[in-house]
Structure formats: C-alpha cells, structure tokens
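TL;DR need structure tokens for one chain.
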Amino acid sequence: MALEISESNFNELVEKSDKPVVLDFWAVWCGPCRMIAPIIEEMYKEYGDKAVIGKVDVDNNNEISVKYGIRNIPTVLFIKNGKVVDKVVGAVPKATLTAKLDSLL
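>> reply
TL;DR here they are.
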C-alpha cells in the first residue's frame, strides 16, 4: 500500500528524501481520486525503493495542502530534492504518471 503521508511524517518522508517523490493529494469523497488510486498502488509496487510513492488525504492534512496550493483533487505532485518539479491535476492514464516519474529517475 502506498505510504500515507501526514503532517507528522511529511518532513522525514518527503522533504528529506534522496529519491523522487510522487504525492497523490486525494479525499475519500472524490470520485476521480478513486479512479487513480489503483494506479498509485501499482506504481508503489513497481517502483519499490527507487521512489517514494505516497498519498496525502487533503481533509486530514490541511497544512500540506495549503503549502502546495492544492485547489483541485486529485493532484499528483512530483518532487525532487524537496522541490516540486512537475504536477498533474485530474484523473490521467498510468502512462502519463509513470513517464513523469521515469524522467526523474
């Protein structure tokens, strides 16, 4: 299961990571979020220790959502060396997400 990123573990898992980070901002009530959830899980299994793949529940982690200006969900951020280097908003095909991550590896 993809990592549950929260305000308590964000610094350790995201900001201090020496690997690329993929963050899926989602909510339980969001239909398109449920559409990409299986893709995020597949990426977590496929990329293993090459990248950090995590999910941020926007309802429970408002501080992180505000920090990155998340206004629409799902939003997937691609972070390298603590900086956002790419972003996708909305439900997109797996190939779109994996291509962006592959470019960071």
